[in-house]
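User: Can you help me understand a structure? I only have the sequence.
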Amino acid sequence: MSTPNCIADSVALPPFKVLMSRQRRARMARYAWLILRILCMANILLLIMLIVRALEKTDSLVYSPAQDIVQYEIKRFNTGFMDEHPTVFQGPPTDAMDEAWRELYERGVSYLLPEEANQLKELTIHAPGSNVFIGGLDVFHQLHCLDMVRMAAYPARYLSGHHHTMPGHNGVMIHHCTVVSCNQ
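Assistant: Let's start by predicting it. Here is the structure, written out as tokens:
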């Protein structure tokens, strides 16, 4: 019984074909190692760049005069959606709701010493007739503007139009906001 030619050819390869196959495999292995080395170097460079960027961001934190008095606490908020008891901030407007919103941002104005004001990135207003500057945390301004949006949803209860004023300290009217954008 004789072996078919195609099987005999594949089993017994001539020596130059075996040599070519080994050379091809060796060349492919070298290319694979080269690609692997390049990818490893790229990953190391990327990691170094990410570390440098993270360090730059840490060094460029914005100064805040309030950073020494900020305290953090873990708090669970009542959403009022699935809970039995909605918060004072939910539902149709009431006098209690209006007072709760005002208490959120009423204390938003602070007085800064000149050395504190000089460290701020943005310019602040010099208080007339004194050596201090007027400033505040942006969160209070944002809460005030959010309250203006809330009030705009109930025009029958609140002032008509887009501009509102709110009583500040000692009865002085402060802040003019529009529903679209807030400006101090």
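Now, to help you interpret it: Strands lie at 110-112, 125-126, 133-135, 164-167, 173-177, 182-183. The radius of gyration is 35 Å. Let me know which part you'd like to focus on.
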